[in-house]
Specification:
DUF488 family protein; 36% helix; alpha/beta
């Protein structure tokens, strides 16, 4: 059974409904102090590759292709341990995927939340 999986900006105040709070960005969010992040974990390995992240550059017109490429990366064996870990967490409690991205609906966190919910 998969519990609720949501996503939001790391800069927002934590909510009691968050469950486990997992940062899914490859780089640490600018201006965020680690003690203020209220994280359970930071899973850099589940984030898009540096090359893909730079190519995308948060251009919403590139989002469909970014989504396709990121899903291809997630199917790569190098992501299996992090993906398995996230699935295990989601089977035990609600999960909130955190990102620094301003447009969360066009982020890897949104893609990852959908991908995990489908499994």
């Amino acid at each position: 059974m998969t519990h609720r999986i949501t996503y939001r900006r790391i800069y927002e105040a934590p909510s009691p409904d968050d469950g486990k709070r997992i940062l899914v960005d490859r780089v640490w969010p600018r201006g965020m102090r680690k003690e203020d992040a209220h994280l359970d974990e930071w899973l850099r390995d589940i984030a898009p590759s540096t090359d893909l992240r730079r190519w995308y550059a948060h251009s919403t017109t590139r989002f469909p292709e970014f989504r396709r490429r990121y899903l291809a990366e997630l199917s790569d064996e190098s992501h299996h341990p992090a993906a398995s870990h996230l699935r295990a967490l989601a089977s035990h409690s609600p999960l909130t995927l955190l990102t620094a991205t301003k447009d969360t609906s066009h982020s890897q966190a949104a893609i990852l939340a959908d991908w995990l919910s489908e499994r």
